[in-house]
Amino acid sequence: MARKASIWILDGNRAAAQGVKLSRVQVIAAYPITPQSPVTEKLSEFVEGKELDAQYIAVESEHSALAVCTSASMVGARTFTATSSHGLAYMHEMLHWAAGARLPLVLACVNRAIGAPWNVLNDQQDSISQRDTGWIQIYARNNQEIIDSIIQAYKIAESIYVPVMVCYDGYVLSHTEMPVDVPAQEDVDRFLPPYKPHTILDPANPKNYNLVTLANPRVNAEGVLCHGYMELRYLLQEALQNSRETITTVGREFGELFGRSYANMFWENRLDDADVVIVAMGSLAMEAMVAADILREAGHKVGVLGLRVFRPFPKADVAKALKKSRLVVVFDKNISYGLEGATCSEIKSALYGNSVRAVIRNFIVGLGGRDVKARELVDAVNKSLLSLKEGDLNEEYPEWICAI
Amino acid sequence: MGTRDCRHICGESSPAVGEAGKTGEWRDSFPVIDPEKCLLVRQNKPSCFLCWLYCPDAVISKTIPIQINMEYCKGCGICAQICPAHAITMVREEGLCLDETG
Amino acid sequence: MKINAVNMTEKEYLLPGNRTCPGCALSLAYRHILKALEGQVIVTVPASCLTVLHGMYPVTSVTVPCVNTPFATTAASATGLVAGLKVLGKEGLTVLAIAGDGGTHDIGIQALSAAAERQTDFLYICYDNEGYMNTGNQRSGSTPLGAISGTTPILGKQQNQKDITAIMEAHGIPYVATANASYPLDLYEKVRKARTIRGTKFIHVFVPCSPGWGFPFSDTIKIGKLAVETGWVILYEVEDGVFRLTAASESIAKRGSLRPLREYLMEQGRFKNITEEQINELQGWVNTRWKRCLDRAVNN
Questions:
Q1: Which fold has domain B27-92?
Q2: C185 Cβ under 8 Å from any chain B Cβ
């Protein structure tokens, strides 16, 4: 167990900055954007005040921020960046590049809506839009999970050379103060070994990284058949497929040292006897637990599945957890236009081919900072239960909890 | 045959001569040196070396006389142009299947 | 010691059998850039002709470490390399960011400007072949007025190029210079000097492109020299604000006058549709710039 820890009152952004500092990050590059800006300010303060021995690069764009991190990581430095919304969208190209180059970057995404029109408030459209970039995505429910997830993210990323995005809801977490157990530096040092890069940038052993790669494998000068583009892509997929083991092992080790275990890909709340399950991700999962309490009082057997890791998506674990359910109500703070909420699609995909026969309902909530009340979640579950009785199965499209 | 023996997890390339193959095969003409005219040969001491300096492909040796690596010389003819003594001439490759009218 | 062809090192960092076109001025320039850096360098390169030169995975045609990076990010990538090396205490390596004119004048200028403003300790080289040659010759911010390109196919470009070296000089960086593949010793000296200076160094290297510009590839050196002799390219350096003409430009200033620009233009297929007005406009542009450089050279 940890030698000492102390309870601080921190908002999400400061919790993230503390996690970065404790992880002894060496190169930080970031560009301010609401609601992420306090992270950049706090980290600048750490570096200027010599509390953190790192290079802070005040870049001119998010695209450059991730390019700085990518190249610094190739040299062998542990890196960090944080962004939100348009900033993450602007990074899109570099997100692909970092994952393709297998660089263990850690990025905090302070979830915010994307324009047009302008909106600085919370939803998860920004990070969900980047789900196919090859990054692991972890969503925090509260500020404790932000600091803990960032520390774990480095260990996960550097074990398997896959970048990790730690996502937390703008304002709801980023600007809301909560008690946070801040680990001691010596304990984090015991938990997180120094970064060992897989890349070599040394004139004595010159390597050229990420040149044009052909569709088919090609033989090198020693006669070894090397990968084609597709084999390299397969290896990234394989790394993500196998990352569940790393993520849960790291989460368990973290629990052994700090007393807060993250040995599961999602949080379960009273799933054991539940036949109705609410699925939500990020801080919404906390609200869902309040809703479940209300529904329990009304006599329904309701549980909550709070998604923590969205990529890799824990298909088998989800299918197992939802085995006994007859109704699954998925709340999404994002929308894949023309279809449904992204987590709903993943839940459906996880259940397909299993013996689970639950009806799945999807509600789009909280876009652009629209307040989501526990009462609204309760109403949505009740409405779904009613329609269930009438034999109305899966709806083609999700329902929106808004004023239209 | 698979690529599992390749330990790379990203595109890591190592240096080797002839990355693009035997680029000498690209030539339509090749350089011929007349040692009688070459300043270097005539003086028999390190001098001139302009052909070596200007070769874009680093296929000319810095020796007396110079040697041109014909496996990789693309036949650009810069050496012939730059030679102050006009000691290098470009000679058309035999057996090229070129459409002379086109 | 003044460098010449006799005393220059034999050591090569560019290997034969690379993928560039025959007579490639970039290949020649890059060969000497690497020699001047003695291989003590980490290179970062965006998508460009240099990517082609570097080869295809798993083989590369250079014996220096290199990081490829997306098009807009060259200077940001260099910033990351510099920051990483510094924080890890690795000293003695030059970080070289090298991009074409598309990657510099156009898509890369934001990251480059910011890296210079941050006084990042690196060498940025723009090799300028005045168009997007790697994608088959489309117009860039450096394509001259009147030049035919893939995206100015009939009329030729209706605007002249921007002066990227002046833009970089305006950042107040300690060293900017222009160079030309046809003057490899001058290029070599400039790179060698830049290597010793702390802060952001910018060198613009003019590289004539045979297939893109429409001249025989044996004429690469000749075209590059004509560019200097007509004043289309002026060879100079500005070190800590002190301006100095170099190589052939210095000689022309001292002893002669520029040849008419027309002689340079007429050697190239890309100017086949250029109008008399455009030639006059370009000649006026050259004259103004040449006078400005002569004035600066005298005043220093």
A1: Alpha-Beta Plaits (3.30.70)
A2: yes
